[in-house]
Amino acid sequence: MDNSLYNYILGISDNTLILGQRLSELCGHGPNLETDIACTNIALDLLGQTRSYYQYVAKLSEGQSTEDDIAFLRTEREYKNILLVEQPNTNFGYVIIRQFFYDVFHLLLLRELQNSKDETLAAIAKKGIKEVSYHQRFSSDWVKRLGDGTKTSHNKIQEAVDDLWKFTDELFYLTEDDKSAVISGIGVDVSLLKSSYYQIVEEVLQEATLTIPELKWFRKGGKEGIHSEHMGYLLSDLQYMQRTYPNMKW
Amino acid sequence: MKKNWPLWEVFVRSKNGLEHRHFGSLHAADADMALENARDVYTRRSEGVSIWVVPSKHITASNPEHHGELFEPAQDKVYRHPTFYNLPDEVKHM
Protein backbone atom coordinates (compact mmCIF):
# COMPACT_ATOMS: atom_id res chain seq x y z
CA MET A 1 0.00 0.00 0.00
CA ASP A 2 1.19 3.52 -0.81
CA ASN A 3 1.17 5.11 2.63
CA SER A 4 2.15 8.49 1.38
CA LEU A 5 -0.75 8.75 -1.08
CA TYR A 6 -3.08 7.35 1.59
CA ASN A 7 -2.05 10.13 3.96
CA TYR A 8 -2.19 12.78 1.28
CA ILE A 9 -5.84 11.99 0.53
CA LEU A 10 -6.75 11.94 4.21
CA GLY A 11 -5.17 15.40 4.48
CA ILE A 12 -7.84 16.64 2.06
CA SER A 13 -10.82 14.54 3.08
CA ASP A 14 -10.52 14.88 6.86
CA ASN A 15 -11.22 18.58 6.35
CA THR A 16 -14.48 17.88 4.57
CA LEU A 17 -15.46 15.26 7.16
CA ILE A 18 -14.85 17.48 10.18
CA LEU A 19 -16.36 20.61 8.65
CA GLY A 20 -19.35 18.52 7.53
CA GLN A 21 -19.71 17.22 11.08
CA ARG A 22 -19.56 20.74 12.53
CA LEU A 23 -22.26 21.93 10.13
CA SER A 24 -24.40 18.86 10.84
CA GLU A 25 -24.48 19.92 14.48
CA LEU A 26 -26.59 22.86 13.32
CA CYS A 27 -29.25 20.66 11.75
CA GLY A 28 -32.47 21.78 13.43
CA HIS A 29 -30.61 24.56 15.27
CA GLY A 30 -29.93 27.06 12.48
CA PRO A 31 -30.92 30.71 12.97
CA ASN A 32 -34.03 30.11 10.84
CA LEU A 33 -35.49 27.41 8.65
CA GLU A 34 -33.90 28.66 5.41
CA THR A 35 -30.32 29.00 6.69
CA ASP A 36 -30.69 25.77 8.66
CA ILE A 37 -31.45 23.90 5.44
CA ALA A 38 -28.68 25.72 3.59
CA CYS A 39 -26.05 24.73 6.18
CA THR A 40 -27.32 21.16 6.24
CA ASN A 41 -27.14 21.02 2.43
CA ILE A 42 -23.53 22.16 2.56
CA ALA A 43 -22.82 19.55 5.23
CA LEU A 44 -24.29 16.87 2.97
CA ASP A 45 -22.20 18.03 0.01
CA LEU A 46 -19.06 17.87 2.15
CA LEU A 47 -19.87 14.45 3.59
CA GLY A 48 -20.64 13.18 0.08
CA GLN A 49 -17.21 14.33 -1.08
CA THR A 50 -15.66 12.75 2.01
CA ARG A 51 -17.22 9.40 1.14
CA SER A 52 -15.76 9.48 -2.37
CA TYR A 53 -12.29 10.11 -0.95
CA TYR A 54 -12.62 7.53 1.84
CA GLN A 55 -13.92 4.86 -0.55
CA TYR A 56 -10.84 5.47 -2.66
CA VAL A 57 -8.57 5.37 0.39
CA ALA A 58 -10.22 2.13 1.52
CA LYS A 59 -9.49 0.66 -1.91
CA LEU A 60 -5.86 1.72 -1.63
CA SER A 61 -5.62 -0.03 1.74
CA GLU A 62 -6.26 -3.35 -0.03
CA GLY A 63 -8.91 -4.60 2.33
CA GLN A 64 -7.26 -3.41 5.55
CA SER A 65 -9.91 -0.79 6.22
CA THR A 66 -13.36 0.30 5.09
CA GLU A 67 -14.69 3.82 4.59
CA ASP A 68 -16.50 3.53 7.93
CA ASP A 69 -13.34 2.52 9.83
CA ILE A 70 -11.55 5.49 8.33
CA ALA A 71 -14.30 7.90 9.31
CA PHE A 72 -15.17 6.54 12.75
CA LEU A 73 -12.41 4.42 14.20
CA ARG A 74 -9.26 6.47 14.15
CA THR A 75 -7.78 8.16 17.20
CA GLU A 76 -7.54 11.93 17.42
CA ARG A 77 -3.86 12.04 16.41
CA GLU A 78 -4.66 10.12 13.22
CA TYR A 79 -6.99 12.81 11.85
CA LYS A 80 -5.18 15.19 9.54
CA ASN A 81 -7.68 18.06 9.26
CA ILE A 82 -6.57 21.65 9.78
CA LEU A 83 -7.45 23.38 13.05
CA LEU A 84 -9.83 25.83 11.35
CA VAL A 85 -12.52 23.29 10.49
CA GLU A 86 -12.75 21.83 14.01
CA GLN A 87 -13.46 25.20 15.65
CA PRO A 88 -16.88 25.28 17.34
CA ASN A 89 -20.14 26.89 16.16
CA THR A 90 -19.74 29.74 18.66
CA ASN A 91 -22.39 31.81 16.87
CA PHE A 92 -23.64 32.23 13.30
CA GLY A 93 -20.82 34.72 12.60
CA TYR A 94 -18.24 32.06 13.46
CA VAL A 95 -20.06 29.47 11.35
CA ILE A 96 -20.00 31.80 8.35
CA ILE A 97 -16.40 32.97 8.74
CA ARG A 98 -15.09 29.44 9.28
CA GLN A 99 -17.03 28.36 6.19
CA PHE A 100 -15.86 31.30 4.12
CA PHE A 101 -12.19 30.86 5.10
CA TYR A 102 -12.43 27.22 4.10
CA ASP A 103 -14.58 27.60 0.95
CA VAL A 104 -12.18 30.01 -0.74
CA PHE A 105 -9.31 27.59 -0.15
CA HIS A 106 -11.39 24.54 -1.05
CA LEU A 107 -12.38 25.94 -4.45
CA LEU A 108 -8.78 26.93 -5.31
CA LEU A 109 -7.64 23.46 -4.25
CA LEU A 110 -10.22 21.54 -6.30
CA ARG A 111 -9.52 23.64 -9.39
CA GLU A 112 -5.90 22.47 -9.22
CA LEU A 113 -6.67 18.94 -8.08
CA GLN A 114 -8.82 18.28 -11.16
CA ASN A 115 -5.54 18.26 -13.12
CA SER A 116 -4.02 15.62 -10.84
CA LYS A 117 -2.24 12.68 -12.43
CA ASP A 118 -4.38 10.46 -10.24
CA GLU A 119 -7.57 9.95 -12.26
CA THR A 120 -9.80 9.17 -9.28
CA LEU A 121 -8.74 12.28 -7.39
CA ALA A 122 -9.14 14.39 -10.52
CA ALA A 123 -12.68 13.06 -11.01
CA ILE A 124 -13.69 13.67 -7.37
CA ALA A 125 -12.29 17.21 -7.58
CA LYS A 126 -14.08 17.95 -10.82
CA LYS A 127 -17.39 16.81 -9.42
CA GLY A 128 -16.95 18.91 -6.28
CA ILE A 129 -16.24 22.20 -8.02
CA LYS A 130 -19.89 23.09 -8.67
CA GLU A 131 -20.86 22.32 -5.10
CA VAL A 132 -18.02 24.28 -3.61
CA SER A 133 -18.63 27.27 -5.91
CA TYR A 134 -22.08 27.44 -4.39
CA HIS A 135 -20.69 27.13 -0.85
CA GLN A 136 -18.38 30.04 -1.48
CA ARG A 137 -21.22 32.12 -2.91
CA PHE A 138 -23.36 31.36 0.11
CA SER A 139 -20.68 32.15 2.69
CA SER A 140 -19.35 35.29 0.93
CA ASP A 141 -22.90 36.61 0.67
CA TRP A 142 -23.39 36.17 4.38
CA VAL A 143 -20.02 37.71 5.23
CA LYS A 144 -21.12 40.82 3.34
CA ARG A 145 -24.61 40.85 4.82
CA LEU A 146 -23.43 40.52 8.40
CA GLY A 147 -20.35 42.74 8.03
CA ASP A 148 -22.22 45.50 6.27
CA GLY A 149 -25.43 44.92 8.24
CA THR A 150 -26.27 46.28 11.67
CA LYS A 151 -23.77 47.38 14.31
CA THR A 152 -24.38 44.18 16.26
CA SER A 153 -23.93 41.89 13.28
CA HIS A 154 -20.81 43.80 12.23
CA ASN A 155 -19.22 43.51 15.67
CA LYS A 156 -20.06 39.85 16.01
CA ILE A 157 -18.64 38.82 12.66
CA GLN A 158 -15.59 41.04 13.11
CA GLU A 159 -14.93 39.14 16.33
CA ALA A 160 -15.14 35.86 14.39
CA VAL A 161 -12.66 37.20 11.79
CA ASP A 162 -10.26 38.31 14.54
CA ASP A 163 -10.52 34.95 16.27
CA LEU A 164 -10.30 32.63 13.26
CA TRP A 165 -7.72 34.51 11.20
CA LYS A 166 -4.87 32.78 13.02
CA PHE A 167 -5.96 29.44 11.55
CA THR A 168 -5.77 30.52 7.90
CA ASP A 169 -2.03 30.09 7.44
CA GLU A 170 -2.20 26.36 8.11
CA LEU A 171 -4.14 25.93 4.87
CA PHE A 172 -0.85 26.42 3.00
CA TYR A 173 1.32 24.13 5.08
CA LEU A 174 2.74 21.01 3.41
CA THR A 175 3.43 17.80 5.31
CA GLU A 176 6.10 15.37 4.09
CA ASP A 177 3.37 13.27 2.46
CA ASP A 178 1.95 16.36 0.77
CA LYS A 179 5.38 17.16 -0.60
CA SER A 180 5.86 13.72 -2.11
CA ALA A 181 2.36 13.87 -3.63
CA VAL A 182 3.30 17.19 -5.24
CA ILE A 183 6.55 15.74 -6.62
CA SER A 184 4.74 12.79 -8.19
CA GLY A 185 2.23 15.12 -9.90
CA ILE A 186 -0.70 13.81 -7.87
CA GLY A 187 -0.92 16.47 -5.20
CA VAL A 188 -1.44 20.21 -5.30
CA ASP A 189 1.27 22.50 -3.98
CA VAL A 190 -1.05 24.47 -1.69
CA SER A 191 1.66 26.97 -0.80
CA LEU A 192 1.22 28.38 -4.32
CA LEU A 193 -2.47 29.13 -3.64
CA LYS A 194 -1.65 31.54 -0.84
CA SER A 195 -1.59 34.84 -2.71
CA SER A 196 -4.80 34.17 -4.68
CA TYR A 197 -6.42 33.05 -1.44
CA TYR A 198 -5.64 36.18 0.53
CA GLN A 199 -6.57 38.36 -2.43
CA ILE A 200 -10.09 36.86 -2.65
CA VAL A 201 -10.57 36.86 1.12
CA GLU A 202 -9.43 40.45 1.48
CA GLU A 203 -11.70 41.65 -1.32
CA VAL A 204 -14.76 40.13 0.29
CA LEU A 205 -13.84 41.33 3.78
CA GLN A 206 -13.26 44.81 2.45
CA GLU A 207 -16.64 44.88 0.73
CA ALA A 208 -18.12 43.68 4.01
CA THR A 209 -16.45 46.67 5.75
CA LEU A 210 -14.49 44.25 7.94
CA THR A 211 -10.87 44.76 8.94
CA ILE A 212 -8.13 42.18 8.69
CA PRO A 213 -6.20 41.60 11.88
CA GLU A 214 -2.48 42.17 11.78
CA LEU A 215 -1.04 38.94 13.02
CA LYS A 216 2.52 37.72 12.98
CA TRP A 217 1.81 34.43 14.67
CA PHE A 218 -0.42 31.72 13.25
CA ARG A 219 -1.55 28.46 14.72
CA LYS A 220 -1.01 25.13 13.07
CA GLY A 221 -0.71 21.47 13.97
CA GLY A 222 -3.88 19.79 12.77
CA LYS A 223 -2.29 18.50 9.59
CA GLU A 224 0.28 16.67 11.73
CA GLY A 225 -2.40 15.34 14.04
CA ILE A 226 -1.95 17.89 16.84
CA HIS A 227 -5.45 19.25 17.36
CA SER A 228 -7.14 21.87 19.52
CA GLU A 229 -9.10 20.85 22.61
CA HIS A 230 -12.37 21.02 20.63
CA MET A 231 -11.41 18.04 18.51
CA GLY A 232 -11.85 15.44 21.26
CA TYR A 233 -15.39 16.56 21.99
CA LEU A 234 -16.23 16.59 18.29
CA LEU A 235 -14.87 13.07 17.83
CA SER A 236 -16.73 11.70 20.83
CA ASP A 237 -19.96 12.84 19.16
CA LEU A 238 -18.92 11.64 15.72
CA GLN A 239 -17.68 8.24 16.90
CA TYR A 240 -20.22 7.52 19.62
CA MET A 241 -22.36 5.02 17.70
CA GLN A 242 -19.47 2.98 16.28
CA ARG A 243 -17.67 2.91 19.63
CA THR A 244 -20.74 1.93 21.63
CA TYR A 245 -22.16 -0.55 19.13
CA PRO A 246 -19.10 -1.83 17.24
CA ASN A 247 -19.74 -2.79 13.61
CA MET A 248 -23.25 -1.39 13.77
CA LYS A 249 -24.73 -0.82 10.31
CA TRP A 250 -27.69 1.28 9.19
CA MET B 1 -43.26 38.28 14.59
CA LYS B 2 -42.20 41.79 13.56
CA LYS B 3 -38.57 40.73 13.48
CA ASN B 4 -39.18 38.10 10.78
CA TRP B 5 -37.87 38.69 7.29
CA PRO B 6 -40.57 39.42 4.71
CA LEU B 7 -42.37 36.52 3.07
CA TRP B 8 -41.72 35.51 -0.55
CA GLU B 9 -43.62 33.21 -2.89
CA VAL B 10 -41.53 30.77 -4.87
CA PHE B 11 -42.30 29.63 -8.43
CA VAL B 12 -40.27 26.89 -10.05
CA ARG B 13 -40.11 25.73 -13.65
CA SER B 14 -39.51 22.01 -13.37
CA LYS B 15 -38.56 21.46 -17.02
CA ASN B 16 -37.98 23.59 -20.05
CA GLY B 17 -41.27 23.98 -21.90
CA LEU B 18 -43.39 23.88 -18.76
CA GLU B 19 -44.66 26.95 -16.96
CA HIS B 20 -43.45 28.10 -13.55
CA ARG B 21 -45.55 26.55 -10.81
CA HIS B 22 -46.10 27.78 -7.28
CA PHE B 23 -43.93 25.68 -4.94
CA GLY B 24 -44.44 27.42 -1.62
CA SER B 25 -43.15 30.35 0.35
CA LEU B 26 -40.15 31.31 2.47
CA HIS B 27 -38.63 34.18 4.44
CA ALA B 28 -35.75 36.28 3.14
CA ALA B 29 -34.35 39.77 3.66
CA ASP B 30 -34.20 40.63 -0.04
CA ALA B 31 -34.65 39.17 -3.53
CA ASP B 32 -31.12 37.74 -3.79
CA MET B 33 -31.45 35.94 -0.51
CA ALA B 34 -34.90 34.71 -1.50
CA LEU B 35 -33.43 33.09 -4.62
CA GLU B 36 -30.62 31.43 -2.67
CA ASN B 37 -33.04 30.21 -0.03
CA ALA B 38 -35.43 28.92 -2.68
CA ARG B 39 -32.58 26.94 -4.17
CA ASP B 40 -31.87 25.35 -0.80
CA VAL B 41 -35.43 24.83 0.37
CA TYR B 42 -37.20 23.81 -2.84
CA THR B 43 -34.77 22.66 -5.54
CA ARG B 44 -32.03 20.73 -3.74
CA ARG B 45 -33.19 17.46 -5.28
CA SER B 46 -32.88 18.98 -8.76
CA GLU B 47 -36.57 19.74 -9.09
CA GLY B 48 -36.14 22.76 -11.31
CA VAL B 49 -34.44 24.62 -14.12
CA SER B 50 -35.60 28.13 -13.22
CA ILE B 51 -36.82 29.91 -10.11
CA TRP B 52 -38.95 33.05 -9.68
CA VAL B 53 -39.44 34.75 -6.33
CA VAL B 54 -42.10 37.39 -5.69
CA PRO B 55 -42.73 39.32 -2.48
CA SER B 56 -45.95 37.87 -1.07
CA LYS B 57 -47.24 41.36 -0.32
CA HIS B 58 -47.46 42.00 -4.07
CA ILE B 59 -49.95 39.21 -4.56
CA THR B 60 -53.57 40.24 -4.54
CA ALA B 61 -55.83 37.34 -3.66
CA SER B 62 -59.51 36.88 -4.34
CA ASN B 63 -61.79 36.91 -1.35
CA PRO B 64 -63.17 33.47 -0.47
CA GLU B 65 -66.47 35.13 0.44
CA HIS B 66 -66.94 36.14 -3.19
CA HIS B 67 -66.64 32.54 -4.33
CA GLY B 68 -70.24 32.43 -5.53
CA GLU B 69 -70.22 35.40 -7.83
CA LEU B 70 -66.71 34.77 -9.11
CA PHE B 71 -66.83 31.10 -9.96
CA GLU B 72 -70.27 29.57 -9.88
CA PRO B 73 -71.76 31.20 -12.99
CA ALA B 74 -69.25 29.25 -15.09
CA GLN B 75 -70.47 25.87 -13.94
CA ASP B 76 -73.54 25.51 -16.19
CA LYS B 77 -71.85 26.78 -19.33
CA VAL B 78 -70.22 23.65 -20.73
CA TYR B 79 -69.60 25.34 -24.06
CA ARG B 80 -66.88 27.41 -22.39
CA HIS B 81 -64.79 24.28 -22.10
CA PRO B 82 -63.20 22.83 -25.22
CA THR B 83 -64.66 19.41 -24.39
CA PHE B 84 -66.18 18.86 -27.85
CA TYR B 85 -62.86 18.58 -29.62
CA ASN B 86 -60.80 15.43 -29.97
CA LEU B 87 -57.22 16.19 -29.07
CA PRO B 88 -54.62 14.56 -31.29
CA ASP B 89 -52.29 12.27 -29.29
CA GLU B 90 -49.26 14.37 -30.23
CA VAL B 91 -50.50 17.35 -28.22
CA LYS B 92 -48.90 17.17 -24.79
CA HIS B 93 -49.40 19.22 -21.64
CA MET B 94 -53.07 20.16 -22.20
- Shape assignment of chain B: flat
CATH topology of chain B: Ubiquitin-like (UB roll)
Count of discrete structural domains of chain B: 1
Radius of gyration of chain B: 18 Å
Written as H for each helix and E for each strand, in order along the chain, the element string of chain A is: HHHHHHHHHH
Summing up helix and strand content along with how strands pair, one would put the structural category of chain B as alpha+beta
Which fold name fills CATH's third level, the topology of chain A?
Answer: Ferritin
Largest sheet of chain A: none
Oligomeric grouping of the chains: heterodimer
Provide a descriptive summary of the structure in words.
The complex is a heterodimer of chains A (250) and B (94). Chain A has helices at 3-24, 33-60, 67-72, 83-86, 92-113, 119-147, 151-164, 176-183, 194-207, 230-244. Chain A is mainly α. Chain A has a single domain (3-244), classed as Ferritin (Up-down Bundle). Chain B is of the alpha+beta class and 94 residues long. Chain B has a single domain, classed as Phenylacetic acid degradation B (Ubiquitin-like (UB roll)), CATH 3.10.20.520. Chain B has helices spanning 31-42, 67-71, and strands spanning 7-13, 21-27, 50-55. In chain B, a hairpin with a 7-residue loop joins strand 1 and strand 2. The radius of gyration of chain B is 18 Å and the shape is flat. The A-B interface holds A 32-35, 37-38, 41, 137-138, 141, 145 and B 5, 26-29, 32-33, 36-37, 40-41, 44.
Give a short summary of the structure.
With 250 residues, chain A is mainly alpha-helical. Chain A contains ten helices and no strands. The interface between A and B is small, with 11 and 12 residues.
Can you give keywords for this protein?
heterodimer; A: 250 residues; mainly alpha; Ferritin; 10 helices; B: 94 residues; alpha+beta; Ubiquitin-like (UB roll); three-stranded antiparallel beta sheet; 2 helices
Could you outline the blueprint of secondary structure elements for this entry?
The complex is a heterodimer of chains A (250) and B (94).
Chain A: H1 3-24, H2 33-60, H3 67-72, H4 83-86, H5 92-113, H6 119-147, H7 151-164, H8 176-183, H9 194-207, H10 230-244
Chain B: E1 7-13, E2 21-27, H1 31-42, E3 50-55, H2 67-71
Antiparallel strand pairs in B: 1-2, 1-3
